[in-house]
Design goal:
With 646 residues, this protein is mainly α. It contains 20 helices and 9 strands. The two termini are 37 Å apart. The N terminus is likely disordered.
Amino acid sequence: MKIFNKTSFIVAGAAILIATTGCKKMLVEQPRSALYPDYFSTAGGVQAAVTGVYTDLRGVFGGEGIVYFYDGTDETIAGGSSSTNGNIFNSYNGLNSSNSPDITGLYVDINTLNGVLQYASAITDPTARTQYVAQAKFLRGWLYFFLVQTYGGTTATQKSGIPLHTTFITKATTADAPAALADIYKLIIQDFTDAAIALPNTITSSDPFSAGGVGKTATAAVANAYLAKVYLTRGYTEAAQSGDFQKAADLTSALITNKGNYGLDLWQDYKDVNNPANDYGKENMFTIDFGLTDPQYSGYTQQPSGGFGINLLYVLARFNYVSTGIDNVTGIDAVPQKMSTKSGMLRDVYNGRPYIRLAPNTPYTILNAFADQIHDSRYDATFQTFWICNTNVAAGTKSDGSLKGKLVPCSNVSLTSYQVPTDGDTAILMPSTDVTMARRDAFNGLIVTPKQFNNTVFPTVKKFDDSKRTGILDFSSRPITLMRFSEVYMMNAEANYMAGNITAAATSLNVIRQRAAYRTVADAQLTAKNQFSVTAASMAGDNATNATAMALTPAQLAQLAIPNNTTAGSGLCGMDLILDEYTREFYGDPRRWYDLVRTGQLVRRVKMYNAIGGPNIQAFHARRPIPQSLLNNVLSGPPYPQNNGY
């Protein structure tokens, strides 16, 4: 969402959840110590308020704290340089109210939106009033949905959760209490429903929050997609109502049928989904912007350690390619792999800044979900599996002590700009299978096989790479996408599966699976030599063969017909097949913990695949603990209750 006219303001007074966050934004045009009702009666005031809420979402999704979206799942484990909290999230050992994610500060934004909704009727321009109120309703619904998925709401068996505030609060209190889950979902559904009716189908040049069609703020399609996700999510909960799954299926089906009205579609080539040129294209529906040099929107100078904006997403799952050697020393084929100090790599802009906070969980992600790397192009489009030598290094040694051939570095080392290597030898190769010692000795660089992957050395997630970076320490200015059109197909498959419509579920899954079979000649640049790629002569035939192979097989269709089973240790069911597809389609996106929680599969799948978290995870871990800051600040009335189990 490219937002201009950036402003900031202070929200003074709110419920205790708001009081804990302290001061927020100060209006540029008219500095105030608080937001008063009259402020929300002007189009400019409402635009500033809604813009400020959009801006705040960057703080949730752009920083290092988003590791809690990933750690402690089947897909991802804590990386070798993870923080203490990252390891706690992954192991479920020591997770408590003091170290869990604290996003309750978003209640400041909810209060701001409540002010918009309460007083915007005084705006005289009916067009502006309609659009601003629709945006405010979408955002309030979105924030509550995010919060309730994280912390839950009061039900018969879960006694805590989040509060529900729907009026503009101008005086802070020291009392608060969790709301019923059913009431929270009722508000979210109403907000998204109202927003979907009033929001435009597409973003145009007159949109007050996106300029000239560039950007991805809320549209009618986005509101309907999230409305479908709310019905889908509620359908698994104690607040479920009859028809929730069917409503999700109907909403997503309508979006697919009418995709042309919303300017939405799938790219033919999966690789294009994450092409920076397509960040605001037809498949990305809802994005959070970070900006590069736009002072009105981003307002950021380079970070102290270098880089623009605050989007750290591209650095989190990137291994330290500089620390590997090239010698075939004794034990080079052992687990863990032996490394020498003779590196064929130095840090550069193209290969990026390694934070190593996250790592793929090899037993599931590499060996299971992405096992088929011939018919399915998504592994090659998601992971970097080879590194081209970019420094002058002495020849490595073979296993018998003799010398290998000397690595030839690329001629266009990208030290001050992003440059794809045009030549040079491969210094690090991560093939999909084991190799012989003879193959290692014949290779001038280092070979790392899947059995040697760990939380320090692993294929890097490259889909978020930012080609605009100019320094080796730069972070990213690319937006983070929170809703893709491919998720509409996946939600349709999941909703139909849960509603018992297996044929319809299979149809949507096959659309996504068979799209992933497509490759172009240019895509060969993504794959290491000797791995699968197409040529101009073979492309048509290979793509047709692979599309046939990617269609669900009779055995997979039989599995899809097995109802969702959340019991730990149970055999495979249809939900396993759906969750595997979510992995292949969205690996690296900030979402996996929420997918597992929604489907009731968190405990079962972590026990099945995550050797670190499996022994400790329990059912209550499907909700994060209520942050200690909230508990400490409820000083009047009954103490704020902690979520069960913590």
